[in-house]
Amino acid sequence: MPFLEQLEKKYHDNGLKILMINTRESKEQAASFMLRNKYSFSVLIDREGVVSEKFSVFGLPTAFLIDKQGKAVLRSTGYRNWNTKKMHQVFDSIIGE
Q1: H-assigned helices in the chain
Q2: Of these four, 3, 11, 36, 85, which has the most CB atoms within 10 Å of its CB?
Q3: 42 has which bridge partners?
Q4: What spatial distance separates the first Cα and last Cα of the chain, rounded to whole Å?
C-alpha cells in the first residue's frame, strides 16, 4: 500500500482521492493500522458489506478508478502495482494532465 500513498501525494493537487474500503476491521483497528504505517488516505469501514455489495465486489482487493464526472473508468480485482509508468499514464489521461 505504500504505492497508494505515493500516488495520492503525486496526484492530490490534480484531484486524485484514494478511498480504502475496509470490510473486516473495526474503525479503531483501521485507524491504528493507518497511523502505524503513516498512510494519509481515507478509509471507509464497511463491515456489513453494503458498499461492497453495491459495487459487486467479490474479490479483494478490488479497485476502481473514477473520473471527475463520477464514472468508473477502470476496475481491477487482485493485486496490482499502481505505481508504474503505464499506470501513471492512465492517471494522467483520467486527470487530464
Answers
A1: 2-11, 27-36, 50-54, 85-95
A2: 11
A3: 19
A4: 24
